[in-house]
C-alpha cells in the first residue's frame, strides 16, 4: 500500500513540476473551491433541513398567519433561509471563474520561459523549448478541468438550494 502511495505522490510531483509554479496556484484554488462546495453540500443535507423544520414549526405555532404583518414575518424567515443557503456561493462561483484565468497565467509564464530559452540557446534546442511549452499547456488544461468540475457541481448545488427553498416556501402556507 505504501509503495502505491509513493508512486502516486511521484506522479503528482512530476505533473506539478512539468506545469510550473502556476499549477500549484491552480491546485490551491481548486482545493479551496472544493472545500467550500463540500461545506455547502454538508449544510444543505444536514443543517438546513433542521433549520427549515424549526422555521416551519414556528410558522405553524403562530395563531395568525393571514395578516399583512404575518406575511412580512414569513417573507423575513424565507429571506433569512435563502441568505443562509446562498452563503459562500458567490465565492464558489468566483473561484470557478478564476480557474481558467489562472490557467492562462500559466500559459503566459510558460511562453515567457520558451522565449527566454530561445533568446539564450537559440531555436535549435527543442528539448529546452519543450519544457517551456509544457509549462504553458499544463496549467491551462488544469485550469479548464478545475473550472469544468466547479461549473458542474456548483450548478447542481445551486439547483438543490433553489429546490430546498421552494420546499420551505410551500411548507409555510399563507392564506
UniProtKB/TrEMBL annotation:
InterPro entries: ExbB/TolQ_transport, MotA_ExbB_proton_chnl. It is found in: Cell membrane; Membrane. It is a multi-pass membrane protein. Its main location: membrane. GO terms for cellular component: plasma membrane. Residues 62-167 form the MotA/TolQ/ExbB proton channel domain. The keyword GTP-binding does not apply. Keywords: Cell membrane, Membrane, Protein transport, Transmembrane, Transmembrane helix, Transport. GO terms for biological process: protein import. The chain crosses the membrane at residues 22-43, 90-115, 127-153. Belongs to the exbB/tolQ family. This is MotA/TolQ/ExbB proton channel family protein. It comes from Shewanella livingstonensis.
Amino acid at each position: 500500500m505504501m509503495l502505491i502511495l509513493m508512486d502516486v505522490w511521484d506522479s503528482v510531483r512530476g505533473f506539478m513540476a512539468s506545469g510550473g509554479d502556476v499549477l500549484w496556484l491552480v491546485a490551491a484554488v481548486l482545493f479551496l473551491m472544493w472545500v467550500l462546495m463540500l461545506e455547502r453540500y454538508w449544510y444543505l443535507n444536514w443543517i438546513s433541513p433542521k433549520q427549515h423544520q424549526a422555521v416551519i414549526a414556528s410558522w405553524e405555532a403562530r395563531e395568525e398567519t393571514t395578516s399583512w404583518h404575518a406575511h412580512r414575518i414569513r417573507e423575513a424567515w424565507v429571506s433569512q433561509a435563502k441568505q443562509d443557503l446562498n452563503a459562500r456561493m458567490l465565492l464558489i462561483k468566483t473561484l470557478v471563474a478564476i480557474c481558467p484565468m489562472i490557467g492562462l497565467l500559466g500559459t503566459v509564464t510558460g511562453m515567457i520561459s520558451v522565449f527566454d530559452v530561445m533568446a539564450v540557446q537559440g531555436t535549435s534546442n527543442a528539448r529546452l523549448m519543450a519544457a517551456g511549452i509544457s509549462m504553458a499547456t499544463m496549467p491551462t488544461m488544469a485550469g479548464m478541468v478545475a473550472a469544468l468540475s466547479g461549473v458542474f457541481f456548483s450548478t447542481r448545488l445551486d439547483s438543490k438550494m433553489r429546490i430546498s427553498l421552494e420546499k420551505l416556501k410551500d411548507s409555510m402556507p399563507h392564506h
